[in-house]
Design goal:
This protein is of the alpha/beta class. It contains 23 helices and 32 strands. The strands form 8 sheets. It has a 7-stranded parallel sheet, sandwiched between helices. Strands 18-28-27-19-26-25 form a 6-stranded parallel sheet, with helices on both faces. The longest helix has 22 residues, at 717-738. The radius of gyration is 30 Å and the shape is globular. The two termini are 55 Å apart. The relative contact order is 0.07.
């Protein structure tokens, strides 16, 4: 029988979408981009409609539900998801799962309940019944499977036929409900003073409430009237009793940043006005790079360049690399666009993220601000996407699909006719080398022509260290500079890009270093609490009193982290007010805002932390920046090590000297002659880029060539090694027979981090100057190469990797 069918992407690793029949009652709601609930074997799942077409419905299951009045993923996002799926070789369902907030996906649960005595006296049936009894007589099939370590579906079906258990299916969750609030609406106009006196008489508070609501447009929420304006519930209810108002229940979007007031607008300088004009002239679908030194006012230029479009009702997306920057950015964006702003990032609750998504999809909000995943915000009539600090590695997603938000933004802009602005003081080399397609707009001077801070490279091989500092690299010049700024009541930022107290724990007798049992890396010593932790898999254990290898009583820590730096500063400068900002101190909600708020109020003298304090922060009171150890990432076995080090030093140096007092930067290093550090000291991005681009021609690395890192992982080392070798041989054969050898295959070899989360890792790299050819080879290999579907190993194709570790 012919009818309407649809193709649905489900959050499972299926290569093709599923086909379903569309009931006549749901035809108006089942459209591309809409969520639907569909049956899949023994359960129901939430999926996203990819396309709708006429076709045969015989043998097809029907869509059960279309829960949303309008699609939560507009057609442009569905098309974008299809491109991401192809380019990053990820099933379309897994791709869309990464694009839509997790709370908006759902699956039914099969629940089993004990109802009668067990008739089978042994075997799997008895195991299931005993487990169910220990779990309180009721549990989901998935929970039983985890408890017993084997599939239980067939056993549950048999027990259900014997009436030992009952089975029922809980429907999938459709996400947090939309919030609501009470709104009071005026129903009787009282335009003259005489009418108001006649109506309210001596009820002065009721009249004041009436006039307040009238001044707000004739309606206002109970919450606003009570909390902000001070009217009691009794006064407001009296307006309803007098028949001059009524109460309505309205949808209310949760906004966790509602309390953040807008930053007052700033008048652009002449240089900023010229940059705004140039960015505004970028054609639809095109892109530009805003190359501005730190402190040049790039955020103002971004926002003013799209103000006219948003005021005409179009939308924009503003991406920031760290959620720590979000409150500061929200204040600036609201200063330009008011309450049309929605926030999307991982630090929000499920309800807050779902409400932000719904607000954008419905058109109630027009500007989205957030970290990496906000590039998928369902903004209507998209005019522009702004990628702030576009060089930052956090824009690369670490799980499937391994997309880069910068590249996704460029592709989305082409699909929807929007403009892209990529901003940075230290652009990625991929962006810098793409000047043929991306127009470069420069901001070469700081606001008010303030000079860039002077940078001093402190050679730790020759410079005297403070005697009491021990293992901590703390030179006399840096110590004198910190003391002088504290005495002048200025603020200081200190960067040490390694968290924890010490890098490792080593026995002085036998030399044994305690490693994570699940990863090929030493565990980090933490003092608060006093534990050993792995920063890759989360392994955690008490610090042992004796060596596990030789039984020696004394163990020694080596290397330093932010906790040890904080302890040293507290001892060295006991009157200084300290704040530490790293992954350990910012795990709680709003912790970023709390710490940075204290710095902004001058309640902190020294802010110390990891790379998250190196970018985007604008505190005029900071006159000194110290990089405690510039070599932490400079010598890693990765082709981007020099670039990342230059960017980190240049960015954190830019936090100094934003106020009238000026600023200084001290960079402690044992390799002061390295070209990356020399260029950072001169604030010379162009010179660094020219030298680094030349170094990536032989051997060739991005952006000279396209690159894909293929990682083979599994729990057995020999199996992983054999699979990686077989995969490399197969790819070499493919390249030799189909491409005349124009794609290089490098490897295989053990990954620098050979084991993570109990899985051994080998990798090989595919690179070619013909990016289109590389794309075809990768997509072909992802579907057909040996071991790509093997349960024993996992093969991951990482397009355009930011790291080869």
């Amino acid at each position: 029988m012919s009818g309407t069918t649809c193709r649905v992407a489900l959050p499972v690793p299926a290569l093709k979408p599923y086909a379903y029949a569309v009931p006549a009652s749901l035809v108006d709601r089942v459209v591309p981009g809409a969520r639907v609930v569909v049956p899949v074997r023994s359960r129901a799942l939430v999926g996203v409609v990819l396309r709708v077409e006429a076709g045969e419905t015989d043998g097809l299951k029907s869509v059960l539900l279309a829960p949303d009045a309008q699609p939560l993923m507009p057609g442009g996002l569905v098309e974008l998801g299809a491109w991401i799926s192809r380019y990053y070789v990820t099933p379309i369902g897994i791709t869309l799962r990464a694009m839509l907030p997790s709370a908006l996906w759902g699956a039914s649960r099969l629940m089993a309940s004990l109802i009668g005595p067990e008739t089978a006296s042994r075997g799997a049936s008895l195991d299931v019944v005993m487990a169910l009894d220990r779990m309180g007589g009721r549990a989901s099939a998935s929970a039983l499977q985890r408890r017993l370590g084997r599939p239980v579906w067939d056993v549950l079906q048999r027990l259900a036929r014997l009436e030992v258990v009952s089975l029922e299916t809980e429907p999938p969750s459709l996400g947090p409900r939309v919030g609501s609030e009470r709104v009071i609406v005026l129903t009787t106009p009282l335009p003259s003073l005489l009418e108001r006196e006649r109506t309210f008489g001596r009820a002065a508070r009721q009249r004041a409430a009436f006039e307040a609501i009238d001044s707000l447009g004739g309606e206002a929420s109970y919450t606003h009237l009570r909390r902000q304006l001070g009217f009691s519930t009794g006064v407001l209810n009296a307006l309803v009793t007098r028949s001059v108002a009524r109460v309505e229940q309205r949808e209310r979007l949760r906004d966790p940043f509602a309390g953040i007031g807008p930053t007052a607008p700033i008048t652009p300088t002449e240089g900023q006005r010229d940059a705004i004009r140039q960015l505004s002239e970028t054609p639809p679908g095109g892109g530009a790079t805003l190359f501005g030194v730190t402190g040049s006012g790039k955020t103002l230029v971004y926002l003013e360049s799209v103000r006219a479009e948003v005021e005409r009702g179009r939308g924009a997306v503003v991406l920031v690399p760290e959620i720590s920057l979000t409150p500061q950015t929200i204040a600036r964006v609201r200063g330009v666009f008011g309450d049309t702003v929605a926030v999307l990032h991982s630090g929000l609750s499920d309800g807050e993220r779902a409400d932000a998504w719904r607000g954008l999809a419905s058109g109630q909000r027009r500007v989205a601000v957030g970290a990496r995943s906000a590039v998928f915000a369902p903004v209507r009539d998209l005019a522009a996407i702004i990628v702030d600090e576009e060089h930052d590695a956090s824009y690369k997603h670490g799980e499937s699909p391994r997309y880069h938000a910068r590249d996704v933004a460029l592709h989305r802009a082409r699909l929807e006719g929007a403009r892209v602005v990529l901003g940075s003081a230290t652009p990625s080399l991929e962006t810098w080398a793409n000047q043929g397609q991306l127009r470069v707009v420069s901001l070469p001077e700081r606001v008010e022509a303030r000079p860039l801070p002077a940078v001093v490279l402190v050679d730790m091989r020759a410079e005297q260290s403070v005697a009491e500092s021990g293992a901590l690299p703390w030179s006399v010049p840096l110590d004198d500079a910190v003391r002088a700024e504290l005495e002048a009541q200025n603020q200081i930022i200190l960067l040490l890009n390694r968290r924890g107290f010490a890098q490792l724990l080593q026995c002085p007798d036998c030399g044994h270093v305690r490693e994570c049992p699940h990863c090929s890396i030493s565990v980090t010593v933490h003092h608060t609490p006093y534990r050993l932790r792995c920063h890759y898999c989360g392994f955690d254990e008490p610090v042992p009193e004796v060596c596990a290898e030789c039984g020696g009583q004394t163990q020694r820590t080596k290397g330093v982290g932010t906790q040890q730096l904080e302890q040293w500063l507290a001892q060295r400068f006991p009157n200084a007010r300290l704040a530490r900002m790293d992954a350990d101190t910012t795990s709680a909600k709003w912790s970023h805002q709390r710490i940075l708020g204290a710095v902004g109020k001058r309640q902190v003298d020294i802010l110390l932390g990891t790379q998250m304090i190196s970018k985007g922060l604008d505190f005029p009171g900071v006159t000194l920046v110290g990089v405690v150890d510039a070599d932490t990432a400079l010598h890693l076995p990765d082709f981007r090590a020099a670039e990342r080090t230059f960017q980190l030093i240049a960015q954190v140096a830019g936090r100094a000297g934003r106020g009238p007092e000026g600023g200084r930067v001290f960079v402690q290093t044992r390799t002061p002659d390295h070209y990356a550090l020399q260029a950072a000291a001169r604030h010379d991005y162009r010179g660094f880029a020219a030298q680094e681009l030349e170094s990536r021609t032989d051997p060739p690395y991005p952006p000279t060539v396209g690159l894909t890192n293929v990682v083979v992982s599994g729990v057995k080392e020999t199996v992983v090694a054999d699979a990686a070798c077989a995969l490399a041989d197969w790819v070499r054969g493919l390249v030799s027979s189909r491409t005349d050898g124009s794609v290089d295959v490098v490897g295989p070899a053990p990954a620098p981090l050979a084991r993570i989360k109990r899985r051994w890792r080998w990798h090989l790299a595919l690179r070619s100057s013909d990016r289109a050819l590389l794309d075809r080879v990768v997509r072909y290999a992802a579907r057909r190469a040996p071991h790509t579907g093997s349960p024993a190993v996992r093969v991951t194709f990482d397009r355009d990797p930011v790291s080869l570790l």
